[in-house]
Amino acid sequence: MAAKFLCCLPLRLGVIVISFCQFILCGALAGLLWFALAIAKEDNDLSAITQSMKTTVIVVGAIYTFAALVGLLGFFGAIFKKNGFVKSFYVLLCVVFGLEVGSSVWYLITFYRTRGQTLDDCINGSSDAGRIAYCKSLDAYKRVPQGAMLASIIVPILVHAYACYVVYQYTKRLERQKFEKSRASKSFSQPQPAYQPVLPHDENVPLTLPSVQYPYTDGPNSFGHVHKHSFDRNNASDKV
């Protein structure tokens, strides 16, 4: 049974939907992150965003920007049935999937590392405003339920893995269609006559005077020959 999108829909429609949703969602999230960084820089409110959090926002924003461009490439590839675009979309989708898995693991490690730490232990008697803001953000961060945290990480990974599977199956289908089209065009093409080259030794053989003896070209075997004895007997009778 051929692969389908959501068990009953065409694979091409699945690639179009996946690439379009990826472009819209990832582009919106990337734009939101870059906008937040730009606002924080203009207001000089860097105390609320620590250096580590700023680095995290930049990395995540770059990943989502890259994912949005990948989605746009796959969308045009599915619309125009360009196997090269769809293959590029599949490869880049796998790369983004690997980055997503890596960032999710890092996210979970950070979550569970700071979960057992209290606010006072994090501040540790420091009067630095940046340190206090950082510890308060971690304190609010660790109040997130574990189920919601795990679901927010596992569900996107599963959806992304299924998207990779659908795009991979569509690339294979485009390859089969291209192969079948090429084979059909060859089967209906007119056969060309084969050219038999003349060997060098064949050119020396005369065509009008063959060297092979042919018995029916001899005089006794030629058409209309009269035997000599019967011819002499007829002449003798004429003389009498």
Automatic annotation (TrEMBL):
<feature type="transmembrane region" description="Helical">
    <location>
        <begin position="57"/>
        <end position="80"/>
    </location>
</feature>
<feature type="transmembrane region" description="Helical">
    <location>
        <begin position="89"/>
        <end position="109"/>
    </location>
</feature>
<feature type="transmembrane region" description="Helical">
    <location>
        <begin position="12"/>
        <end position="37"/>
    </location>
</feature>
<keyword id="KW-1133">Transmembrane helix</keyword>
<keyword id="KW-0812">Transmembrane</keyword>
<feature type="transmembrane region" description="Helical">
    <location>
        <begin position="148"/>
        <end position="168"/>
    </location>
</feature>
<keyword id="KW-0472">Membrane</keyword>
<protein>
    <submittedName>
        <fullName>Uncharacterized protein</fullName>
    </submittedName>
</protein>
